[in-house]
Amino acid sequence: MSRAFWFAAGAGTGVYAVIKARRAADRLRPAGLGDQLAAAQLAGRLFLHEVREGMAEKETELRSRLGLTDPGVPDQSSLAESTGERGAS
């Protein structure tokens, strides 16, 4: 029984090592490196998108909490000054 156990353990370890070595060799080939680079670029773009989305959400929350106007919507006084119109004096 002991010999069968060690034989199976050795065979399993050998198969595991061969599979890991094959995967490592695939990653180091030009196609594998290109895939890794593409995956890293995608991950970077997704991360930046999440950060920008979070920043915009937090800014909106802070502006509403502080009672500030939305930067995308000009207020009426700056709009009137830029067009040369003045309120009734």
Short summary:
By secondary structure, the protein is an all-alpha fold.
Please characterize this protein's 3D structure.
By secondary structure, this protein is an all-alpha fold. The chain has one domain (2-65). Helices cover 81% and strands 0% of the residues. The termini are far apart. The mean pLDDT is 85.
Taken as a percent bin, the fraction of beta residues is: under 5%
Note the gap between the termini: 104 Å
pLDDT < 50 stretches? none
Radius of gyration: 31 Å
Helix amount, in percent?
over 70%
User: What's the domain count?
Assistant: 1
The H/E string reads HHH
- Multimerization state: single chain
**Structural class, judged by helices and strands?**
mainly alpha
| Mean pLDDT level | 85
- Main sheet makeup: none
- The count of β-strands is 0
Q: What is the overall silhouette?
A: elongated
- Total number of helices: 3
Features of this protein?
89 residues; mainly alpha; 0% strand
Task: Write the SSE topology.
Elements: H1 2-28, H2 30-66, H3 76-83
